[in-house]
Amino acid sequence: MISIKFFLQHKKYFASAFLYSCFSLIFSTWVTYIPHIAEKIGITEGRIGKAIFFTALGAFFMIRICRHLIERIGVGRYTYFALLIYCICFFGPFLAFNYVSLCISLFFFGMAGSSYAISLNSLTATIEKQDGVYIMSGSHGFWSLGGMIGSATGSFIAAVVHNPILHITVLVLLIQIIQTRLKSQYFFRKGEQPIQEKHKHNKIMPLVVIALVGLVVMVSEGAIADWSALYLKKIILLNIKYIGFGYSAFSLAMMIGRFTGDSLSKKLGSWQLITWSSLIAMTGFSLVLILNPIFTIPGFFVIGLGFSVIVPEVYRLASNVDGVKTADGVSFIAATTNIGFLVGPVLLGFIAEFKSLHLSFIVLTVWVSFAFFIAFWKYKRKIL
Question: What is the pLDDT of residues 290-300, one digit of tens each?
Answer without folding.
Answer: 989 999 999 99
